[in-house]
Structure formats: structure tokens, C-alpha cells
Amino acid sequence: MEPIEYRGQRVQPVFDKFRKDLTILAGYWHPVFNIDGTFKVEADSLAWATMSEETFAELYSKTIDAILAKVLPRHGLKREALAHHVDRVLEFA
User: Fold this and answer.
1) What pLDDT sits at residue 54?
2) Among 57, 61, 63, which residue's Cα sits nearest to residue 43?
3) Residues 6+ apart with CB under 8 A from 90
4) Other Cβ atoms closer than 10 A to 81
5) 18 near 89, Cβ under 8 Å?
6) What angle do CA 33, 36, 39 make, to 5 degrees?
7) Per-residue pLDDT, 6
8) Of the candidates 16, 12, 13, which has an alpha carbon nearest to the alpha carbon of residue 92?
9) What is the pLDDT of residue 88?
10) How far apart are CA 78 and CA 71, in angstroms?
11) C-alpha to C-alpha distance for 22 and 89, rounded to whole angstroms
12) CB proximity list for 83: less than 8 A, separation 6 or greater
């Protein structure tokens, strides 16, 4: 993949942004207002220590669904690597 630049700076992938985007795609988000009056959605803050097993299982399943729908088709990620990547995303919450 060719490097992408924006205003003379190379665009770098940011794992935390990726994790937050997946959290939003999984349905764990809340709306917030910007300073200009528009709104956007932000990822919920997830506390693993206080999360029930049922909630964790639901989040895990929805995260996998989001990856299958949005990441795999664009980046050629193989199914066998999916669980590894999901685990990496979840451990950085």
C-alpha cells in the first residue's frame, strides 16, 4: 500500500483510534456535541473489571461482526488471524 499524505504529513495508523472505531461499530457509543454545535458519536469507555461475562460475550461477538463486515473485505485479513486481532483490540481497552 502506498503511503498516504495529508498536508505534507504521512498518515499513520493509530491503534487506539481503530479500537474506538470498532467499539462504535459494535454499538457501544454515545452522542456528544462539538464546539460548533454539530454532534458526533464517541466510543463508550469500557471497564473490563466490572463487565459481566454476558456483556463481555456480547461485545466480543459484536466486535467480530464489525471486523467481518468492515475490516476483512478492505484489508484481506484472513479468518484465522481474526481472533488474534480481536484479542489485541480488547486488551488495549
Assistant:
1) 93
2) 63
3) 48, 59, 60, 63
4) 10
5) yes
6) 30
7) 94
8) 16
9) 77
10) 10
11) 9
12) none
Cell numbers for 22, please give them: 470498532
Reading the chain (93 residues) residue by residue, the pLDDT tens digits are 688 999 999 999 898 999 999 999 999 999 999 999 999 999 998 887 888 999 988 988 898 888 888 877 777 767 677 777 777 776 765
At 62, list the grid cell. 459484536
Say which residue the cell 479468518 belongs to.
79
pLDDT in the model for residue 2: 82
Helix (H) or strand (E) holding 9: strand 9-10
Backbone dihedral region of 46: left (phi > 0), alpha (psi from -120 to 50 degrees) or beta? beta
Residue 28 in grid coordinates: 457501544
Residue 33 DSSP one-character state = E
- For residue 87, what pLDDT is reported? 76
Polymer length in residues for the chain: 93
